[in-house]
Amino acid sequence: MQKVLTVLIPVYNTEKYIKRCLDSVLLKDILDKVEILVVSDGSTDSSVSIIKEYQKKYKGTLRLIEKANGGHGSTINIGIKEAKGKYFKVLDSDDWFDCHDFLKFVEKLTQEDADLVITNYKQEHIYSGKSILNKYAELEEDKIYDFDSFDLKKLNGEYFVMATSTYKLEVLRKSNMHLLEKTFYVDMQYNIEPIINVENFVYYDVDIYRYYIGRPEQSVNIASFVKNQESHKKVIKHLIEYYNRHREEYSKVKKEYIEMILIYMLNTHYSIYCNYETNHRKAYKEIKEFENYLKNESEYLYEKLNSLGYIKYYRMNHFIFLKHFNKIYKKLYALGIEVKRKIGVNYEEKNISH
């Protein structure tokens, strides 16, 4: 009998966190309903030894695959290929599930047939001790939404991320998605590429995912964005080109949805060079090259970015302030925003993506 859910846990040297992660999913009341698929991505610490001890105890539920290091994307690629559940969800090994809500979630899944199931998640900030709930407040619980006729305003500018998304396995396989390997930020592929085959989705108001934030080596902090800017560029180029290939296959709503995510990513990419890269000459060279690429690849997205004030201002000055007088320009720019606010001009700029 097919299990209702495969939980994929990619592991790379997380011996400090793996027990908490496994304990949160190996719950006695649902062992017959879930498959816990652990993929070790060439771990060199004691993670695999710990997992093997759990495997002995939970035969028939926990499965371990060991492979050479290929990055987060490679573990998900193998997970999708090897999974046996009806639904598929990713849980990073330094994160965990809320046990109470996970039990409720699995029980609800046994009666579910939507292509995509959306849930809430919490950001657990280790240094401040804050726990921040992220939910889709305007979605109705248990309502089946047709994606092609969905009102995107209900998302309030947000989109469905890996932590909130549980796909039907057949939807993932039908999409022929292959996440880039040895590359950061491939979760954005996971957020975008399967959508072409998602006909409907449902929202459960349960707070399952606990997203552990604050480790210095995480790719979501600003320093890592700057350090891994080549990965970010590789992923965003891949997704722009993917979207261009499939643009005519999307409904109007799906086009708007994917474009919203791409603009969010582009904002992050420009922000890396305009606001955080300290080598200003390098930033100038990189952003000018990317400007040419974007204009040639998607003039629509290029023009759409002018809605972000700082990009429009930099473009008006041909990004020259990145190479010269960057600090002075930033002060003048900040002053200009303050003046606009005081005289009542509406200005809106998204924060860097996470």
What is this structure, in a nutshell?
Helices cover 43% and strands 18% of the residues. The protein is α/β, with parallel strands linked by helices.
Q: Rg, please?
A: 21 Å
Beta-strand content bin: 15-25%
CATH topology of the largest domain: Spore Coat Polysaccharide Biosynthesis Protein SpsA, Chain A
The largest β sheet comes out as: 10 strands, mixed
Q: pLDDT average, as an integer?
A: 90
Uncertain residue ranges = 345-354
* Fraction of residues in H or I helices: 40-55%
Question: What descriptive keywords fit this protein?
Answer:
Spore Coat Polysaccharide Biosynthesis Protein SpsA, Chain A; disordered C terminus; 14 helices; ten-stranded mixed sheet; 2 domains; alpha/beta; 354 residues; single chain; 18% strand
Textual characterization of the structure:
This protein is an alpha/beta fold. The chain has two domains: 209 residues, Alpha-Beta Complex (Spore Coat Polysaccharide Biosynthesis Protein SpsA, Chain A); 121 residues. 43% of the residues lie in helices and 18% in strands. The protein is built from 14 helices and ten strands. Strands 1, 2, 3, 4, 5, 6, 7, 8, 9 and 10 form a ten-stranded mixed beta sheet that branches. Strand 2, helix 2 and strand 3 form a beta-alpha-beta unit. Helix 8 runs antiparallel to helix 9. 35% of the residues are buried.
